[in-house]
C-alpha cells in the first residue's frame, strides 16, 4: 500500500501537459537511489553517467533481457519499485533510475533521452544482452526519443501517457522507430490520449506497433497499478503479452 500511496502522490505532479517543466535543484551526489522507499530483498543500488551526470538507479533481477524504467515528472525510482519487482520475478533484469535533478541524480550535460541511453548502457554493462525501454509520461517521451539513438537498438519500447513534447519532441523521433512499440494512455487523462494516438500514427506502418486507450483518468505509472480500476488490468495484461511476444525474459 505504501508504494501505491507514493504513486498516487506523484500522479498529479507527474505531467500536467506537454510543455517542458523545470527539474528541481540538483540533488547531492553519493546518495543511494530508492532511499525513501522500501526496496525489495536483492535490490542493488548503482550510480552511472558521463559528461558530468551522476545518476542513481536500482537494479533488480539477473535475466539476460533488461528493462529500463524511466519515471514521470516529480517522481523517482520509487514510482517503479512494485512493477520492477514484478518484472524481476518473471526473469527480467530491471533498472529504475532517477532522472537528473530528481531523487539522488544530477543532470550534468545529459538531457532526458541521453540519460535513458546511459541507463541502457549501464544495464548492458550489468549483464543484460537485450534492452527494453519503458517510460511513463515525461519518461515516456524520453524513451521514444532515446530509442533510435541507442546502440545496439532496444528490442522494444513502451510509452505510457507520454506527451508529444517534454524537453524533446517525440514526434520527430517516432518516425525513425524500427523496433516494436507499445503506446497506452487513459481516455480521460487530459491530452495524453490524443498524444498517444498522434505518436502511434507517426510510427512507421512497417514497425510492429500497438495502441491501447483505456477508460480511465489514471496516468503514467498508475496505468500498471495492481488493484486499480478494470482499465489498469487491461493495460497490465496487454503489456505482458507485448513483452512476451517481443522481449521475452
How would you characterize the overall build of this protein?
There is one protein chain. The radius of gyration is 16 Å and the shape is globular. Mean pLDDT is 89; it is low at 1-29. 55% of the residues are buried. With 249 residues, it is of the alpha/beta class. It has an eight-stranded mixed beta sheet with strand order 1-2-4-3-5-6-9-10, with helices on both faces. The protein has a two-stranded antiparallel sheet with strand order 7-8. Strand 5, helix 4 and strand 6 form a beta-alpha-beta unit. The chain is built from seven helices and ten strands. Helix 3 (112-125) crosses helix 4.
Mean pLDDT: 89
Spatial shape: globular
Beta strand %: 15-25%
> Based on DSSP secondary structure assignment, what is the total number of beta strands?
10
Radius of gyration: 16 Å
Structural class label = alpha/beta
Helix content: 25-40%
The ordered H/E elements are HEEEHEHEHEEEHEHEH
Taking the sheet with the most strands, its summary is: 8 strands, mixed
Uncertain spans, ≥5 residues at pLDDT below 50? 1-29
Strand order of the largest sheet: 1-2-4-3-5-6-9-10
Helix count, per DSSP? 7
End-to-end distance, in Å? Answer: 27 Å
